[in-house]
From TrEMBL:
One Gene Ontology cellular component: cell outer membrane
Protein name stated in the entry: TonB-dependent receptor
Lineage of the organism: Bacteria, Pseudomonadati, Pseudomonadota, Alphaproteobacteria, Hyphomicrobiales
Primary location recorded for the protein, binned into one broad class: membrane
Keyword annotations of the record: Cell outer membrane, Ion transport, Iron, Iron transport, Membrane, Receptor, Signal, TonB box, Transmembrane, Transmembrane beta strand, Transport
Homology family: Belongs to the TonB-dependent receptor family.
SUPFAM superfamilies assigned: Porins
Name of one Pfam family that matches: TonB_dep_Rec_b-barrel
Superkingdom, taxonomy of origin: Bacteria
Organism encoding this protein: Methylocella silvestris (strain DSM 15510 / CIP 108128 / LMG 27833 / NCIMB 13906 / BL2)
Residues annotated as domain TonB-dependent receptor-like beta-barrel: 61-245
Amino acid sequence: MIVDAGLARLATPTPSAAAARPPANPAIDASAIQLARRVFYQMNAAAFAAKGITANQLWQQIKLETSAALDAGLRWTHEVSGLGVFSIEPTGYVSRNDDKGVTYDPGIGIQYAQNVGQSLAYGAQLLGRWKPIDTLDIFASMSYDRNVFVSNPPVLAGASAATVAGANVTGTQLPNVPEWTAALGGTWRYGDFAFTPVANFTGSRWRDTTRTQYLSGYATVDLNFTYQFKLPAAKLEASLTISNLFNAQYIGFMNNSYFQQSTLTNAFYYPGAPRAVVGKIAMKF
């Protein structure tokens, strides 16, 4: 029996926008951001002035995004005579994000970026493997991910009921984050030949923070065939991969925001990849 365990902690600033890269000249970068804010303010000066918001207040709202994370894992391996080798790997994590950039309307009639997003993520994964014989390896995994807002973004006094309702997100799952994912597969080897089928499942998710647009879960199956043989001076490997074997149709990706109100129109949906067959030949010397 073998037992391994680990623990990791990470705390780091996660800058966004122009701050996401080391500036060649910080003064120039800061001036560019300030100029953009000033132009945006001037274009919407009447709306901001009506709520008593100055250009300097917009500038002072810019903050550095920060995050802190902690994860822990364990691997337990045990061999049973006549049944093979079993291993179990549970992993858990928790992370906190502060001052995330959020684009929304606090009650002015204009949507603009503000560093007011606060969220908490936590979850666990269980990975299991069973090797009954040397030529067969079976594996399965299941993950639970909870990623929620821990506070509502602020709204201005006198904001409409729709604005207040749209900002009421405490405890709700972030957009485009499924709670459940799972996989099941295995590898069978026969001489120089290997066959690996894998089934993947992704649970349902929401497209927006107000939970008006629902995306169903989906499952896909992939197959991989590999054959290796040795040459006098190299090793040749030929493989054939069939992804999305049953040509499942689903929404695979969407470029939405961290805080995505249903009234925003900047989210785009991309279909998942259809069935594809890819062959490859590689030579290793």
